């Protein structure tokens, strides 16, 4: 599966890769400045402390974990490691998270779209029909962005069994869903890559920390080609602190799910709303009478939502992120006033 140049690559070996003991106290190996402790030192290139803690929380051994500068880094690495530009291709559901396509285009790799049905669902069969012998990876996002729904689990399993290449299951929003994560099935499927992030439920979009979980072979390839110090020290520290406070994340998730359900039923009663799509995420999609007009009206009210009118199957749709109670009330108030 791996591109030959990547398979043969001898990775850069940093000073902190070569020496990993803890007994030494004089570090004259990495051309750092000895002053301005602790930010003068390079961080652990493999983030072992953080992975050990994450491993306990997720029930996945550290060798199965890759950490990157957002999950966007892992998405890009899939292309760089496995897809030969202008030769290989990937298949993805449509509509979905926009970065899969952008990463494909940056890496000059053909991107094949498989349209979801009217319930925003997919079938393994349609994905396989779109594939050929050059298809290296398939992208699934569950709950899906921007549609908000969980993808059919049986079909995901069917695809994992039937497809020879990688199946990337992006679980950025899984904390808000009642569906279990695919993390527990890593041993069963050597072609599975699960993506998660600190940017959503963990409330840490600013620190840029994404996770990829897969077989040690796949993780080994990612580690081979990543930038040596891809996750900075401040991010590693902040993530460790958040892991100690994981109960807080759980509380946010509960509050946000409740607010999502309340918002969705309030939206159903609004004059300008035609359809509210059920969501398993911390956002939902809503079809309105005129998305462009309502989007601009809300901007005038100082409220920014995401206009998805131009996205396939999402004509006249807005994507609403669930905020605090007060923010959600401000949005509802503005929409009740709209057109009066
Ligand atoms: N996957 C999905 C489905 C997303 O919606 C997003 C961000 N909007 C990401 C991944 C990227 O997350 P990160 O901040 O970890 O790069």
What does this protein structure show overall?
The chain has 340 residues and is an alpha/beta fold. The protein is 36% helix and 16% strand. It contains twelve helices and eleven strands. It has helices spanning 4-8, 15-18, 48-58, 71-82, 99-106, 124-129, 153-162, 216-225, 233-244, 246-268, 291-300, 325-337, and strands spanning 65-68, 89-94, 110-115, 135-141, 166-170, 192-197, 210-213, 273-276, 283-288, 306-307, 317-321. The strands form two sheets. It has a seven-stranded mixed sheet, with helices on both faces. It is globular, with a radius of gyration of 22 Å. The model has no long low-confidence stretch (mean pLDDT 96). It binds 4'-deoxy-4'-aminopyridoxal-5'-phosphate. Residues 70-72, 97, 141, 145, 170, 172, 197, 199, 205, 210 line the site of 4'-deoxy-4'-aminopyridoxal-5'-phosphate.
What is the straight-line distance between the termini?
Answer: 59 Å
Q: What is the percent of helical residues?
A: 25-40%
Number of helices: 12
| SSE pattern, N- to C-terminal | HHHEHEHEHEHEEEHHHEEHEEH
- The neighbouring-strand order within the major sheet is 1-7-6-5-4-2-3
Q: What's the overall geometry?
A: globular
Bound molecules: 4'-deoxy-4'-aminopyridoxal-5'-phosphate
User: From the alpha-carbon coordinates, what is the Rg to the nearest angstrom?
Assistant: 22 Å
Q: Strand content of the residues, in percent?
A: 15-25%
